[in-house]
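Hi everyone, sorry if this is the wrong subforum. Our group has a chain we'd like a structural model of before ordering constructs, and none of us has done structure prediction before. Sequence below.
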Amino acid sequence: MLIKKLILNNFRQYIGEQEIEFSTDKERNVTVLIGVNTSGKTTFIRAFEWILYGINGFGEGDNKTREEREKEKILLNSNVAEKLSFGDSAEVIGTLVIEHNDVQYEIIRTEKYTSTGSDLRTAGRSASIYYLQPDGQTKTKIEGDFEDSIEGILPKALSSYFFFGGERLGSIASQTDIESSVKGLMGLDILYNARDHLKKVVNIFRKNIDLGGNQDARRLQDKIDGKNVELEELKTALDEASDQLSYYQSNKEKYAAMLKANEDTKEKQNRREQLITIIKNLNTKIEEDKKDLVNAFSRNSFAFFSLPLLKDAIKKLNQASDQTESVPEMTADSIDYILKRGICICGTCISPGSAAEKNLLTERKKQPPESIGSVVRNYREQASTIINSNDEYYSRIEKALKNLRSDKRELGFREDEMKKLDEELRGAKDSSNLEIEYQNSLNRVNEFQRKKDSFVERIGSAKKEIENYQYALEKQIAASKENARTQAKIDYTQAVYEWVDKAYKERESIVRSNLEEKVNKNFARIYHGHRTISIDEKYRVKYIDVTTEESEGLKAVKSFAFVSGLVDLAKESLTSESSKEADIGPQYFPLVMDAPFSNVDEIHIKNISRVIPESAEQVIIAVMQKDWEPASEIMNPYVGKAYYIEKAKDSNGKDIDTITHIKPRRDN
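Answer:
Right subforum, don't worry. Here is the predicted structure as tokens:
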């Protein structure tokens, strides 16, 4: 299939009739359309899907209301729509001219809109396909179902592998319908469908066997029927278990790679957890340091601040002349009490006029207010005690303050370390969660592996029982000539089925092996790292040596390698003699891509640019200028036609988003 021409009439931004011809030169097989964002590159690619399959891919997105989605699905150019009066109508027309099996076809799809005054209403849709006579002018409409005709040219199930945008590229190699799509592309579906048909024929023949009144035969047939039902259920369960096993195996490998890639992150996260505890303890210690400082300051603080005065007072008192000796702590009241009592504390009787009385009266004169000397001595002694008790006051405060400053400084260091780790870990995945996910996936892998093994064993047992019942049944029905003839048909059909099944499996094995080889070859040419790709029985693309998490760019590279390998293999199959003779080989298909380089770096862009022109018979790319610059260094020799997708401008030179024109690039 070669795309020769596309004509759009009032399709979205493409106002009026705009025509673009594509390169069909085998040597210069690339057509490039260069445009800025929102210029209409994606709209251009979606036009192919709309014309061929009636797919309206506009208005998608979960964050949009139903009204917004419905409005965006309108294909008619908004400038044209605004000029419609009530009841007026306008059509959107898309025409695709292609060549398939040396026949030229013209595919036309229209959608008619009528204005209701406030909005637009779809008034009709149509799709037609014509083939052009050798003169290139006369058209003959192909009658019959339009969808069936298109399926014979490019099946809808395969279209997503040949018409895709950058946002869809990363998921191509892991689509759920990839198995059936590859089988269809490689011609395997013919053998696959033939095998299924033969299986149905065998079942029909078996139902035609007349068991009559043979109760033993009837019981055996019932057992066979029951076991066949059980067998189909077991096969379905096995497929589901295999799919689940494959899914969790991929998850396990993914999380293992992420854990390995995050080993440094894990250490940092562990250190961060330690820092959380350290910082918490430091904050608690700082509060204790503050309390210690307050306590140290409060204890004897009055005495500490009175030290200069006390020292000065003692200095003055030491210089004073009054050095009266007296009994320490003695007071005038104490002496008066002893005189009144008449007995000294030592037991001496104190009588009036006695020597004892005289000595006590003399001592009384030394006490205040009669003598200041005792007061001075007492003050001096108490001041000295206070001064001596404050020798450790400053050192206690100094120690508490040093502890506070040291802990605050340590807190600052640890908080800075935490801030740096937070910056380094921003956007990184939590290693603890990765470990949980890995362990969960590992557990599920073991679970579904056990289930798969169990189903395989039970399927083998069921098949053996069916064989035994079938052998016994054949003996029962051999007596009837009619049944014997039917059994012969069953045996013959079963033999053909086994031959087709063997041919299918051999062919499928070769296809998968060759596809894996080509995908790896292209992947090695594109990817600037070291990895090996495997393709499982469902044709899903996986890495053998997974060591890191798969980025969006790497997914795109993997999908490019897969699609280019698939197209290349299909091209080889088409040219093989066996395919030509059987007339069942696959067809050439174009690659039509929107922003294919959006998720890959410059190195990968150049590598991909080397592979794509060699893989496909025809390549059509809509790309931004910045992505085309590195690609053009490689692809320019392959470019047969080039265009610019440009927005119209108003009188002020501002872009008009609703009007886009396709203009040939004159420098190609």
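For your construct planning: Residues 577-586 have pLDDT under 50 and may be disordered. DSSP finds 21 helices and 14 strands in the chain.
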